[in-house]
Amino acid sequence: MTPTTRAARRTARQRRLRAAILLSTLTLGAVAATPASAQAGGAERGGKPAIVLVHGAWADASSWNQVVRKLQSQGYPVIAPANPLRSLSSDSAYLKAILETIDGPIVLVGHSYGASVVTNAATGDPDIEALVFVNGSVPAEGETVAELAGPDSALSVSDPTTIFDFVPGDVPPGPESDVYLKQSTFLESFATGLTRDRAAALWATQRPVTLGALNEPSGAPGWATIPSWNLVGTKDLVIPASAQRAMAAKAGSTVALFEEGHLGLITDPNSVSRVIADAVRATS
To answer: How far apart are the first and last CA of the chain?
Structure first.
């Protein structure tokens, strides 16, 4: 993207922001500020891109806490916004709206289902310099998160009621039904590599994803035009390494491996932050 184009986008964003502030002031008398780290321009950030971390299903943004601290210690501006987990299209639209508030280059990172959200939100945004997928579900157009895990996933079973709890509890569940992982599934397949006490606490605080979000076909993928990196957990039982490798090959991603389970962003934040930094160096 040329400096002229970037300046034009910045001017348009500033105009939209001023209009939003004026409207909010008139109607509510207060404005919720975007994090300063995200608003700061590239020059103010010392030339470093903003890094946006997107969590997956059955988790929240706190799953990135250790990665955030490591990236911040290296001088990167970082935000880890809440992923609504309502539908792939609406979650992607929400993330895209967040990205529109950030001035300057961005590296976009997604874990698990969050990788699908990242893939869709990045499409057509010239400010996205790189995509990083961590144990990610990385779809091509028309593919769904549910199918991408493959037949070897611990979540691929003939009777979903043995591994999931649905809210409301009606069976069969519908697209708007919330999906929770049963405790046994969470501890034995999802949170491997963590102490049992830590895993049990995460299970108790998990955020549900809707069944529809897991089965909604993806739109055009951002990786088709944006360079990507894929960190593959070789001990992942939710999205097995073989499925991750296949998705990485399809996206033309640079592949790195770490010997971690599905929550590798928690059990090995060093490897995650290192791959993100590699993506920054390769594209900045």
So the answer is: 12
